[in-house]
Amino acid sequence: MPVIRITDPDDERLADYRRLTDVVLRSRHEPAKGLYIAESAKVIRRALAAGHRPRSFLMGERWLADLEDVLTGVDADVPVYLGEPGTLEALTGYHMHRGALAAMHRPPLATVAEVIAGARRVAILEDIVDHTNVGAVFRAAAALGVDAVLVTPRCADPLYRRSVRVSMGTVFQVPWTRIQEWPAGLEELRAAGFTVVALALADDAVSLDELAADLPERLALVLGTEGDGLSAHAVAAADVVVRIPMAGGVDSLNVAAASAVAFWATRV
């Protein structure tokens, strides 16, 4: 494959990587081009192992040898851009301490039916806007055996750079897609035999321990956004409302921490 050494951060061939600040990544830039950015050697390896197609690579000189085994397995016309640290920082807008980036083609999203087929436990993320939390939930899902993740229309994109990085690439490992109608889309899960469980603070909520003691055959855990938690219409659409028992005067956990607790308690 072509190895191209770069010295000019304004080189038009590098447009996919230019000024990769969070503001840019929350704009239309990536989805409009059908791309996402994989950051770090480990994440790039997981993306390629999942069958995702690279458009190009960008890295410091020392990372070329570290990634040589995977780079030799991609199409010969995919360029590898090499640059000095100062050039790379001027290009991307931040210090690339993880050494390597790849612009990857976004795979087409599967349907909800395809993602939940054969699944016993599914997590649903309602309107979670923090990319770090989305990535952390995916990492917990992968580590604790959740079969699939569904995200609502307004939930942050699991393939944004920070989500991918925080997940350690597990967004490529756990099947996921978007529910197009919310919360009406829960009917598809219910028709497939899932019990829909909302994690929320409610007067009629049962303890997570009670749910874990008698797990449904197929379980969909719905987790809400930071701060406000689940919306009222999401809670109303659930079959059961569950809360995590708390001590010390604390009433709730960060959504990523709550997801890990719930996934562990309901493991099969």
How do the strands and helices of this protein lay out in sequence?
Elements: E1 3-5, H1 22-25, H2 29-33, E2 35-39, H3 41-49, E3 54-59, H4 62-66, H5 68-71, E4 80-82, H6 85-92, E5 100-105, H7 112-116, E6 121-125, H8 131-143, E7 148-151, H9 161-166, E8 176-178, H10 186-191, E9 195-199, E10 206-207, H11 208-213, E11 219-223, H12 232-237, E12 240-243, H13 255-265
Parallel strand pairs: 1-4, 3-4, 6-7, 6-11, 7-8, 9-11, 9-12, 10-12
Antiparallel strand pairs: 2-5, 3-5
Helix pairs in contact: 8-13
Explain the overall architecture.
This protein has 268 residues and is an alpha/beta fold. The chain folds into two domains: 3-105, 60s Ribosomal Protein L30, Chain: A, CATH 3.30.1330; 112-265, SPOUT methyltransferase, trefoil knot domain (Alpha/beta knot, 3-Layer(aba) Sandwich), CATH 3.40.1280. It contains 13 helices and twelve strands. The chain has helices at 22-25, 29-33, 41-49, 62-66, 68-71, 85-92, 112-116, 131-143, 161-166, 186-191, 208-213, 232-237, 255-265; strands spanning 3-5, 35-39, 54-59, 80-82, 100-105, 121-125, 148-151, 176-178, 195-199, 206-207, 219-223, 240-243. The model is unreliable at 22-29 (pLDDT under 50).
Roughly what is the average pLDDT, rounded to an integer?
90
CATH topology descriptor of the largest domain: Alpha/beta knot
Low-confidence spans: pLDDT under 50, at least 5 residues? 22-29
* CATH H level, superfamily name of the largest domain: SPOUT methyltransferase, trefoil knot domain
Beta-strand percentage range? 15-25%
Tell me the number of structural domains. 2
Using the CA coordinates, give the radius of gyration: 20 Å
Order of strands in the sheet with the most strands? Answer: 8-7-6-11-9-12-10
**Count the strands?**
12
Distance between the termini: 45 Å
Coarse morphology = elongated
Helical segment count:
13
Helical percent range? Answer: 25-40%
Just give the CATH class of the largest domain.
Alpha Beta
Largest sheet: 7 strands, parallel
Order of helices and strands: EHHEHEHHEHEHEHEHEHEEHEHEH
Helix/strand class: alpha/beta
The CATH architecture of the largest domain comes to: 3-Layer(aba) Sandwich
